[in-house]
Amino acid sequence: MSDQSQLPPDDLLGSLGALAREQDAEHPRAWEEVVAGQRSVADVRAERADVDGKNAELYAELFAPVAEDERERLTDLLADALASDTKPESSSKPISLAAEREKRSRRRGWVAGLTTLATAAGLAFWLLPGSPGSSGEGVNLPSYELTVRNRTVEAKRSADTKSQGPNRYHPDSELNWALNPQTTHEYAVKLAVLLTPVGGGEAQLRKLERVQVQQSGAIQVRGSVQELLGLDDGVWDVQLLVGPADLLPQTLEQAQRLVADKPAGIEVVAPYRLEVVAR
Amino acid sequence: MFGAFAVCVARCDRFRPLVTPLQVRQALDGNRSSLRALVDEILPVVRVEVGVALTRRAAVQRRDPRQEIDDFTQEVLVYLLKDQGKLLRTWDPDRGRSLKSFVRLLTRQRVSRILQGFKGNPWSHEPTEPSDFDAGVGKPRTDQARQLESREELRLLLERLRARLNERGLFLFQLIYVEQRPIKEVCQTMGMTRSAVDAWNSRVRKQARELANTPSKR
Description:
The structure holds two protein chains of two kinds. Helices cover 33% and strands 24% of the residues of chain A. By secondary structure, chain A is an alpha+beta fold. In chain A, the strands form three sheets. In chain A, strands 5, 7, 8, 11, 12 and 13 form a six-stranded mixed sheet that branches. In chain A, strands 2-3-6-10-9 form a five-stranded antiparallel sheet. A two-stranded antiparallel sheet of chain A has the order 1-4. In chain A, strand 7 and strand 8 (204-208) form a beta hairpin. By secondary structure, chain B is mainly alpha-helical. Chain B is 69% helix and 0% strand. Chain B has ten helices and no strands. In chain B, helix 2 (21-28) packs across helix 3 (32-61), helix 3 (32-61) packs across helix 4 and helix 4 (65-89) packs across helix 5 (99-115).
């Protein structure tokens, strides 16, 4: 066993820092000038022969100047990416892996002939984009990703029936939702929920006090539909707002404005549509 | 004399901010010529950072960096500009870091995440169960010892840690442990209180210990 292995944790970080410094010192920045077309491969290869050692030949290949047409191609690609980022539909529409799973399931014939309530095997997955914007008031939250782990209620009348509607719940159905930040962060966040009835009606704002917030910023929502959301029968759009307690909305109007404006400091998760049905 | 200075200007990016924060914002707001200037500025940084990271990994995983450098470079560039360039908009040269240095650090982290199998989510596709959050803490030091028996293990641990840090953590780690800046300066640079930096430090120490106690996937 080496001495290094017995380092206490702060020394462990010290060792990692020392290694990173070594890597920084060895980092072949001169090759950046070759990629940029400012220096020749031969020039930098000769200059760094001792440092690059056995990697010299490989670096000469990897870091050859990038041609003009390739730079243009990359610029076009990035311009397209930026432009598509601004289109609300492409950036806010959740991707339902549950639907994809269902298609696969149908192909396999696993759901043939069911006429009663069936349980969907509980993992719906939404990719949630981050809200655009800046550090604003100094709070710069990463985007959040919602994973619905609970079982939902699904009505099937035949193998051919397409069930593309909202996920169904009974009032006493247990929710098990996980909101994971794209990267860990250090903000103390809370969760508020804007509930909007589809097809008209009175929206509601609820603050979820009983959620479990992990040190990393991950949030676990557990409890019954009635207990957590208090929803009547019907179809609802659920929008989750994550942010520091003092930035979360206090009133319904504030919540609706935040959802519309998506200001810095609050992450607004794309709507999750659900239907509450009586037993 | 002037010639020597000119060479230095050409080679030291800290003396020649080719792209200003205003130009970065213009590029991200859709100005194509500014975007092209941004590409010219950061592409070499990203490509070399990616190439070096892939080369380090190549010996371990028997992968050929030449086949992957283009894809990785493109992926990192798209990542840097995602969400309307949210990350790049946070670059502020007054905090003492050139755009190249800023992008270099972000690229290093992004490549670590890709190589560690992350797809933008620290916990991949599975949310962490509450019981998993403290897993690994307090395991016997002998496990940690085995993890660190070689320099390669330490390098892998650094990569795994980088992959799990958020952007703020990435810069804190760089300032505190790599550049060894005084904490007061770190607080000023990052706009954080001393207690916030201490709290982060405590968390990252725990995180590093957890990772050292958990077998790595090569």
